[in-house]
User: Fold these one by one.
Assistant:
Number 1:
Amino acid sequence: MCGIAGYIGFRRADEVIISALKRLEYRGYDSWGVAVRHENEIRLIKRMGAIGDEKTYSVAEGNAGIGHTRWATHGKPSEINAHPHTDCSGKIAVVHNGIISNFQSLKEELESRGHVFSSETDTEVIAHLIEEFYKGDLREAVEKTIGRLKGSYALVVMHAEKDELVAARYKSPLVLGVGDDELIIASDVPAILDYTSRVVYLEDGDLLVLMKGDFEIFSDGRKVNRKVETIPWSIEDAEKGGYEHFMLKEIHEIPRVIEDTLFEYLSDDIEIDISFAAGVSEVTFIACGTSYHASLIGKHLIEKLAGIPVRVEFASEFIYHQPPMHRTLAIAITQSGETADTLEAMRIAKKLGARTLAIVNVLGSTATRIADHVLYTRAGPEISVAATKSFIAQLIVLYLVALKLSGMTKSEMEGLLDELRIMPELVKGVLEHEDEIRAIAEKLSDYGNMMYIGRGIGVPIAMEGALKMKEISYIHAEAYPAGELKHGPFALLGERTPVIASLTPDETYEIMLGNIKEVKARESIVVAVTGHDDAEVEKYVDHVIRVPRTDALFTAVTHSVALQLLAYHTAKARGCEIDKPRNLAKSVTVE
Ligand code: G6P
């Protein structure tokens, strides 16, 4: 998730922009850059890594400028790929958030007309298109340019010859801060609050012209008025988008994360080239933590849909197995791409003859350099230590990989693809039940132990649910296949051990009901997670968490989001420090 800041007013633009970018640091970034208009020229700096102390960077004197913190999506993290990007003349500078999906064909078209590109980014095509359309009116040139773009964008553009910024928004946020004789445009409110609390939220399709002391908004070529709102939050609240914790904010971002990940790989058909799997006779997943649970779900999907045998290994244990892997596809799942055990297991898998695929959230991370092939999740940076949105994004990629490996025709998989396409709406349907989930969480918050159970795909759902609970609430939570309860864990059950049961609408449903009755006979409180149309289960359990009905395969998404909320609200009721649980780290770079 990149950050944008643009300024026009009476102050030094570089100082305002750098301080605004620092306010967006919470979003995560790998490089950054600032452009300032100075004596009819664009003056630019770009750097890798953190901004550090803003006083050390002076770009140039000037009262108009744009800046950007980049979280790499197209093209590795590097100074050249950092924004702002310029055209051939160096007179036009652009910063952009989002993904231009037709950038490759636009780039080839522009190159055929003599444009020379210096970066690997999709953004640079925007600068060159504007250059072609520019006839002295920047707004007109940007308007024509966005007519050629497919994908999502929030962009801010500047021309060397005029104190004016032009911004456009489509499916990527932009907010305008309206100060006294100064305007600041940014991708999020914290960047603005040092200067003003009066803001205008742009809408999709809006084009905004910022001049000294004034601004105009256009939609469909016509001038429109948008409401100026006053932000009541502090900067710290604003970073969390008004949510109390990053974890909750990140859970609420899941519908958008699913959209972004699907946008990357699913159009009319699944856009994943799986030639890397040609000739393999088995798959081995290697991963840690939440990514290990995503792998267990991946096993279920690939075995069920594609009929290929799958092993799942803890990366830290794989080191001691070292099986022959000549016809194996080793899939490493790691949101950070930097987990030491996963990296080591990938290197060993390669030595053992496996082909390697990494499913990663961080572009340019070490895992992407080790793997033969990479698929990216589009979760954006995750701040909370407990993984939520990155896990769901991993699942989305796994659905697509499993469907692609299945060899089903497009029409055979159409029903499942349709359900995937509405997954953002289904997750919103889960989030709508948050109040009920909170009420249940508050009842659970006094217990010291919990048991999560499921069958089939419900087992890894239970394992991830239990992991979330123990990570952030410090309640001891175990997960078991429901059929295993009577082989030991039954001894733990009783009125002081609530049981959380995931019921999936498949061949496991009836037998799960039987297991729940057995649990109830041991006097445990039972919370069932099930489809909204399940009228049967409430006869046997104490609480029901309802989620929209889906094919059983997709319950991994809907149930997991519900269990993330359950863990969050339990931890909150216990007064735990949710975003940074004790003893845990977001990225584990030691073995
Ligand atoms: C740490 C994090 C977990 C994460 C695990 C694996 O334990 O706290 O949230 O699931 O590492 O991380 P990875 O980046 O490889 O997915």
Number 2:
Amino acid sequence: MDSIVVTGNGPLNGQIPIAGAKNACLTLMPATLLSDEPLTLTNAPRLSDIAMMGTLLQSLGAEVAQMQGGKVLALSSHALDTHVAEYDIVRKMRASILVLGPMLARDGHAIVSLPGGCAIGARPVDLHLRALEAMGAELDLRDGYVHAKASGGLRGGTFEFPIVSVGATENALMAATLAKGTTVLKNAAREPEIADLARCLRKMGAQIEGEETGTITVQGVDRLGGATHAVVPDRIELGTYMIAPAICGGAVECLGGRIELVQAFCDALDRAGIAVEETEGGLTVTRGDTPVRAVDVVTAPFPGFPTDLQAQMMALMCTAEGTSVLEERIFENRFMHAPELMRMGAQIDVQGGTATVTGVDRLRGAPVMATDLRASVSLILAGLAAEGETTVHRVYHLDRGYESVEQKLRNVGAKIERISGQ
Ligand code: EPU
């Protein structure tokens, strides 16, 4: 297993291009299952999770071709060989559950393995299933699989999500496009990835309204056609690289970054004394000579502060002036980076879903263990600002969600290298 070695090297300056969003691409890809015409995705990120979704779609009989080194994905699924998404693939990536709604909507049946829990929490899929039931799906949970049927097709229904779920909204939205009649999804997720999915589905012929309001109304159509769609920029990759100059000093322009994708995060940076400026090419983050101020953060569904940037924000707060309180309200176990940051000298007290971080003058490099994707990158950010060398082990998590991370950081002056097979 690879590891990454980072050595604190002073301020970072330059430009970092932001890739297409992993989490948008992971829901756009299964949308191909809704149509027998080709779907072409441009601005796709080159990540192992995207390759995994490709493998899952191929296992169902879809064609997945990568072009321009993986930046363009040509997808097509005329007829499926099977409607069974096997455990062996699904267990490796929770987003696999997103094939359920489309297969069921198009062909009236699907069998998809239950994904199981993961490091950041139990992450059930009950809301995905309940939303599909509201559209007439008959579901049976057997042998670790969801057996779903909709004899005569799905029909429109109304479903109010008891809590906001990104994935359940995506599954339900895709399914509703081919259901007979009108579907209303209330308390739906409003993340930019949902809006991106809605835009793509509309290009395919779907009739969708309200995807940015929390109430999505879908008029089902008989069939969807093909489309070409550019994946929205990755707001989490963007926020991650915005932290890099904030923690190390310097000025970095994140090319392709858009403020509306990260407004709540920018508000937190502003309170911390970090300047964010819109430029022609994206967003520039500048850290002057003044120390970073401690700020409190509560994670929430969009447009709130994203849970996927909580670990990176914690890394920044480790050397801020004062004490900050970070509350994690989306996942029950998303502070696994805290003990690793403490190995680097951070002062963090975790009580349930609340972490209290007291800033220290300097972090010190140490060997640390990555436990999930965002935790991994927070350790790299901390390492960039630490004295000495930090070795981040188990970096395969990182490759699931960050394209060319070493190269992007090296280009702005970071000292970072990958060591194979450790
Ligand atoms: N939940 C349920 N039942 C469900 C679905 C969700 O109880 O049926 C709970 C979850 O356990 C969690 C909360 O609802 O406590 C929100 O989960 P959500 O469904 O919104 O998360 P997700 O769709 O599984 C996506 C991203 C995550 C991101 C979350 C929250 C993808 C592929 N994943 O997950 O991204 O943290 O939304 O914004 O889109 C990451 O990229 O590192 C990552 C974990």
